[in-house]
Amino acid sequence: MYTREHPRVSAYVHRRLGDRGAAEELTAEVFRTAWERTAAGHEPSSGWLFVTARNLLSNHYRRTARLTELHRRITDELNRAPASGQDTAVLDTLDRLPERHRDVLMLGYWDGLSAAEIGEVLGCGVPAVWVRLHRARKAFRDLYVRDRSVQPEPEESA
Asked: Which of 68, 100, 101, 130 could tie 136 with a disulfide, CB 3.0–4.6 Å?
């Protein structure tokens, strides 16, 4: 089923998102869910794959809208000019992180929760929180540095 349906589902998702990377992640999530369903003894159909993709797209759109609203609200609350290029790069990197990394970073740095409080929110112990924070910071740093190194250097004036 994967070999037969992956190109179709991937194209469906990509046409709606316009972002190849996000489409690949969402398509992978569709097939991960299908795998879990198959393991539970239910055979998903082609139609089921597309319904699942549509639902995941809806979740993606809602999440994107929430993050956009959050950025707007933060700018308003801080009563400052719209984000600088560096602010935008940080927020874009944060947006593109997997949810598990974004959540632990936002809880710790944005919301100011302690490791114990984060553990309570995420349902894990304090040592696990420190491990998650370490991994999330590394993922953020790697993504941020990679994106910044791909950016063209500003041209010098002659």
From this structure: 101
pLDDT digit string, tens, across residues 145-156: 887 775 544 444
Alpha-carbon span 139 to 100, nearest angstrom: 11
Three-class SS of residue 111? coil
DSSP3 helix / strand / coil % (the chain, rounded to 5):
80, 0, 20
* The two three-digit tokens of residue 29, written as one number: 């999530």
Cβ distance 26 to 56 under 8 Å? yes
Whether residue 31 contacts residue 6, with contact meaning beta carbons closer than 8 Å, is answered with yes
pLDDT at 104 over 60: yes
The tokens for 41 are 């003894």
The C-alpha angle with vertex 130 and arms to 129 and 136, in degrees rounded to 5, equals 85
- Contact (CB, 8 A) for 27 and 53: yes
Q: What is the distance between the alpha carbons of residues 144 and 50, in angstroms, rounded to a whole number? A: 33
Q: Which of 142, 136, 127 is nearest to 103 (CA)?
A: 136
Distance CA 29, CA 139 (A): 19
75 vs 18: CA distance, rounded Å: 27
pTM of this structure: 0.47
